[in-house]
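Our consortium's second objective concerns turning raw sequence data into structural hypotheses that experimental partners can test. To show how far this objective has progressed, the report includes one record in full. It was chosen at random from the queue rather than selected for favorable results. The single chain below, 584 residues long, was entered without modification.
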Amino acid sequence: METQKVLLEKLGKADIAMILGSGLQKISDGFSDLKKISFSEIPLMPKSTVSGHKGEVLYGNSNGKTIVIWCGRIHRYEGYKTYELNIIALLSALLGCKYLIATNASGGGQADMEAGCIMLINSFLNRVGVCPLKYLINEGLSDDSVFDTDSVLKEEDMELVRTCARTKGIKLYEGPYNWAPGPNYESHLETKIGIDHKIGAFGMSTVYELMTAKKLGLRLIAISMVSNKASVLCKEELTHKEVLEKMDLCVPKVKELLTELLSKIQVPKDEISVFNAKPKFENLLITCPKLCRMPSLQEAKNALAEVIMKVNKGIPLVSFAINAMINKMDCSSMFTIYEEIAYSSLPYVPTFSQAANELQIGVGILKTGECCLVLHNASLVSTYPIESKAIAEILKSTKCSFVLHVVRAYSSKFDKEGIILVRDTMNLCSYDSLEYKHISFNPELRKSINNILLKDLPEKNEFNLAGIEGPAIPSKPERYIIENSGLQWFSLSNLSLIDSIRSERIPFGIIGVCNSLNGKCTLDESALKSYIYEVFPTKSFKDIVNEMEKSIIKGSNLEARLKLNSSDEIISNKTVAIKLDVFR
């Protein structure tokens, strides 16, 4: 691979990688046999555009260890996508590094912090709403196992930093780090909420590097240089120029601490697996820029319509759909006739993610004679929102009048088994591409749908759900905020697929299958199928249509109208396809 080859030829293999944030390049002055190359000499390397980040790679020796030093980093606010933020951690792993020491400049969130002090990062809060691990999974650089965020920073490594600070007489603060999108400094309200939740420092970097490096097998240490008090504690206006000037106060102490730390770190002898595998991560940087280009989907719609007509007596329409954002279910017992087609076999559909290539679309006839569509293995399709948008558009073409979303639900607060009804959702993810329509679901219709779904639940469990971009389980600070904000459960799925279907104005309901935090599902699949079977053969959803029709005839203020036009067809002798416009 070209990028790795260039780095090995110009620099060589290394033991430890260091990322030096704003104004910290002077720390490398004491290294021997120093080499230097520019970011521009590395194939596919994004350019660092922020003042104080030189965009250089230094390579040298310190205390008998070979060190690669990234002088500067790239940030999301510079316009780079999540997959590009991975590159420094990836290249460090590919050079054979066993440790990554990440530093940054931050605003101090503890009352007695002053400019020039140092904080050991012991946890973090991801306020950006993206998880960099999804791209590693997609390119085969990592498995898709549930990832414990609280295990990123190990206690033994943090204790080593504490010991080194005591040895050198350096006062060391400690606390969680708040990762915000930037480039604006944190508002007074954001700072106050963070401080109330024991956040120690506020910044715009580092978390994505830590998560990626941990997933690749590196040991991690993260140190934050406090350049200023956080905004609510600081009376004067903050500027980047001031941050760089105040960083000079940190440099002597940080240099002393890192020098001691480098002398004490015991580098493991075994090479990490990603170096041995030599994965072609260039696919991340070559393929991903194409993600915003939505192709014409008419041929894909036609291909799916042929499958539906084959199952549904020549009629290319369905009544309901199940979006199974869980493992694939065996649907043979639920339908009298059933056919499947691979999503990736539909013409010209976007299939950038591994999940999209595994997605199966099933079409079956319920025992009531109604046609139902099932999306299998849809849990990670939201990796790339363009795939979610495409699936929703294709689904809309079937004239589907209701979608039941089935998601995995996790909680550290509740210990429940079985199924919960999701009353409402809050998507805490942000999207790398594509704009979403801001459409809110009609509350009266949503309540009617939830009443029907709740009626058939064995236990009347109804909760709110947060959408978290997996597979990383939120850290303890993140879970604390989620659970104290009325969001009792969370899903490790970016909810862009649900948001896309919402944008297409298709009524929906959401149920959650309870999982433990270690990823183990506590529900027997037969119980889930039994619940779905209880929901769909009833006339409950047709009753919703009838009630809405009555409310419109009576001049109700319910914001809905029925659209019957020449394109609507009879689905069966029992059901008429009625398209609802039920959104505000």
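The partners drew two points from this record. Confidence is low (pLDDT under 50) at residues 273-280, 286-292, 433-439, 551-584. Residues 2-285 form a domain with the Rossmann fold fold (CATH 3.40.50.1580). Both points have been shared with the crystallography group to help prioritize constructs.
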